[in-house]
Amino acid sequence: MCSRRAEKTDADGAPGFGSFKTWSITGRLTFLYTLSTFGMLLVATGFLHWALTSNLEREDNQFLADKVHVLRAILGERPADSSALEEEVKWEGVTFRFTKYYARVLDRHGRSLIETSGMGDVLAVSLFPSPVGVEQLPRKGVSRALAGRSYLMMAARARTGNGRQRIIQVALDMSRENDLIADYRKKLALVLFLGILLSAGFGVASARRGMRPLQEITRKAQLITSSQLHERVDAARWPRELTALAQALDDMLDRLEDSFGRLSQFSADLAHELRTPINNLMGEAEVALSRARSAEEYRQVLESGLEEYARLSHTIDSLLFLARAESAKMQIARETLDLRQELETVREFHDAVAAERGVETSCTGDARIGADPTLLRRALSNLLGNALQHTPPGGKIVLSATELPDRSAEVRIADTGCGIEPQHLDKIFDRFYRADSARSANSPGTGLGLAIVKSIMSLHGGTVAVHSEPRRGTTVTLRFPPAPVRRV
Questions:
Q1: From the DSSP assignment, how many helices (H) and strands (E) are in the chain?
Q2: Which of 205-219, 333-347, 352-366 is predicted with the least confidence, judged by mean pLDDT?
Q3: How far apart are CA 324 and CA 289, in angstroms?
Q4: Domains recognised in the chain with CATH numbers
Q5: Taking the alpha carbons of 294, 298, 301, 306 in that order, is the dihedral positive or negative?
Q6: Averaged over 172-195, what is the pLDDT?
Q7: Is residue 337 a contact partner of residue 368, using CB atoms and an 8 Å limit?
Q8: Are the C-beta atoms of 372 and 438 separated by less than 8 Å?
Q9: pLDDT exceeding 90 applies to what percent of the chain?
């Protein structure tokens, strides 16, 4: 039971010590801040401890080296002055209150001639290191622990004024300094511990204060609902580290608002487009059932209903195609196509309608493209059918193919129809959009043809553009990317 609770706590990023990736950002910042502070304090306290011990050691060695130098001077300059030697050896160490200093002078056979009182009971002659030469000054002594106390020892040779050899042994009791260092070490450990606690506290406070803007962004984002997509996080008021996040949220809200708006408009347009044929079917059925009718009359009602059924079927088919085209999973089967031949095929298919309307159609140019033949013909058919609907008798429609220097290709469908007003040009590719009554009157279309053309061009990685002048005509330009090169 306890282990499960601990695992859950770690996984949720709460106080547990699970994976660092599951920790909260405040916990991470606090941990990293505390760890860095601990590292700096550890280096600082270690350096201070080293500095203190090395300085004390250097001073102690210099102190003993000075004593060796003084004793050499007394033996060399005043060999017969026993009082000066006795004062330096026997009484010098006694005068120190807190430092215990010992000195001893031996003859060349190692017998003690004079030493500090009580030195023989504590420091035997054999415990000292080998003496350095007469001309050498000892630099560093030897530390030894004896009976729970620590001593620093030096030994050096000396020559008296009458040419005799002497050995000088000096020692310093280091116990007091060791106690001082131990106490200093405890204080450094206390400083390190308190420093970690304080850094952790400051880390938590700093992290929470630093995370406050992110919490405010979160609260502001939580207030945004589907009915309040106009609200924005406002990237200008946040710290620089959060500006990119706030801008991304605002961009996302822009896209969501646009998508919701398009979805709402699409739903309204779809309901309108479906309601019209359904109402027509219901009206005709009600009229037909209002009284007894002949078989021929019922046949006419059914024939009329077929037109509405075809309109519904065409609308649904177009919507399903658009839904599939917008899916990232949809793949197209590209083939290398003769664009002039494809234009001629589409033109011939609409030739009867063009002749009936009294519109002249023609094809020019030549090019090769890599495209899905079914989708290409559908796009061309939609554009040519749209041009035929809005070109008056006696007008012309020209379908042209052009291969550009970069091996891309352009298709242009130019008509001499009524044209489109400038304010409608950026909306004509929207679903169910009708420019105006001049172009939509008596039009059997569903308002999805140009939207399908745009989706087909997006699937091919191409573009579609429209240039139109009212009462002079419209030109739609399809640009396809370069056809893939086949290696033999």
A1: 13, 12
A2: 205-219
A3: 40
A4: 1-222 (no CATH), 236-325 (no CATH), 335-480 (3.30.565.10)
A5: negative
A6: 91
A7: yes
A8: no
A9: 26
